[in-house]
């Protein structure tokens, strides 16, 4: 039976981070845990190989296997067909916004207006500098669907503003400057306060 005592404190923290965030790339782990050079990072991560699976997406992406999940009392939620690139991009934002305490992935927001219930599922929801952020990660989504999302967020944000519970921000994280400009234009058209980041920005 594997024991936590056989691992360093840093390796244990990495396993817990993988449990909480589902999947992290080598460079993300380097940043989060101050692993230094690529060579040193690979040495540290080699020590937890029996508790993780990896998949190459430009660089190695790590996620817990069943043994690793059992070791820390977690759950192996990532499968071979899970959208790893999407998860890693979502975690780019978690890191970029300094590890929000109230970070909630796959966050469902419900509201009632005119006696009718509405809902929207964001890739994540969090608070930063006392402002509520709703994250949408866009990799291969059709732009028509993105426009529908902007329209729906416009309804939600007007509802939030009427409740006087703050000024929400729609945060897009996408993969091209073309998409970035289009998303900014739609948010402006629908009166949605937004920030749009591009993968190249990182």
Description:
With 202 residues, this protein is an alpha/beta fold. It folds into two domains: 79 residues, Arc Repressor Mutant, subunit A (Orthogonal Bundle); 98 residues, Trna Endonuclease, Chain: A, domain 1 (3-Layer(aba) Sandwich). Strands 4-5-6-7-8 form a five-stranded mixed β-sheet, with helices on both faces. It has a three-stranded antiparallel β-sheet with strand order 1-3-2. The protein is elongated and about 55 Å long.
Question: How far is it from the N-terminal to the C-terminal residue, by CA?
Answer: 40 Å
Number of strands: 8
What would you call the quaternary organization? single chain
> From the alpha-carbon coordinates, what is the Rg to the nearest angstrom?
19 Å
CATH topology call of the largest domain: Trna Endonuclease, Chain: A, domain 1
Share of helical residues: 40-55%
According to CATH, what is the class of the largest domain? Alpha Beta
Nutshell version of this structure?
The chain is an alpha/beta fold and 202 residues long.
Helix-strand blueprint:
Layout: H1 9-21, E1 24-25, H2 26-32, H3 38-46, E2 52-57, E3 59-64, H4 66-72, H5 84-96, E4 104-113, E5 116-128, E6 131-137, H6 143-162, E7 169-174, H7 177-189, E8 194-198
Parallel strand pairs: 6-7, 7-8
Antiparallel strand pairs: 1-3, 2-3, 4-5, 5-6
Helix pairs in contact: 2-3, 6-7
InterPro entries: Replic_Relax
Pfam families: Replic_Relax
Organism: Parageobacillus genomosp. 1
């Amino acid at each position: 039976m594997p024991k936590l005592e056989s691992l360093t404190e840093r390796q244990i923290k990495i396993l817990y981070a993988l449990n909480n965030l589902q999947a992290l790339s080598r460079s993300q782990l380097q940043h989060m845990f101050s692993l230094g050079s690529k060579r040193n990072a690979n040495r540290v991560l080699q020590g937890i190989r029996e508790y993780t699976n990896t998949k190459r997406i430009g660089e190695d992406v790590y996620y817990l296997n069943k043994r690793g999940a059992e070791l820390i009392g977690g759950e192996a939620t990532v499968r071979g067909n899970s959208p790893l690139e999407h998860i890693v991009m979502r975690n780019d934002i978690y890191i970029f916004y300094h590890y929000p305490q109230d970070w909630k992935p796959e966050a469902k927001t419900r509201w009632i207006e005119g006696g009718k219930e509405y809902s929207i599922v964001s890739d994540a929801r969090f608070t930063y500098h006392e402002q509520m952020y709703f994250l949408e990660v866009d990799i291969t989504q059709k732009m028509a669907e993105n426009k529908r999302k902007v329209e729906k967020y416009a309804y939600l944000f007007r509802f939030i503003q009427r409740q006087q519970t703050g000024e929400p921000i729609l945060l897009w994280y996408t993969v091209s400057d073309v998409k970035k400009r289009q998303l900014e234009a739609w948010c402006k058209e629908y009166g949605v306060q937004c920030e749009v980041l591009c993968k190249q920005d990182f």
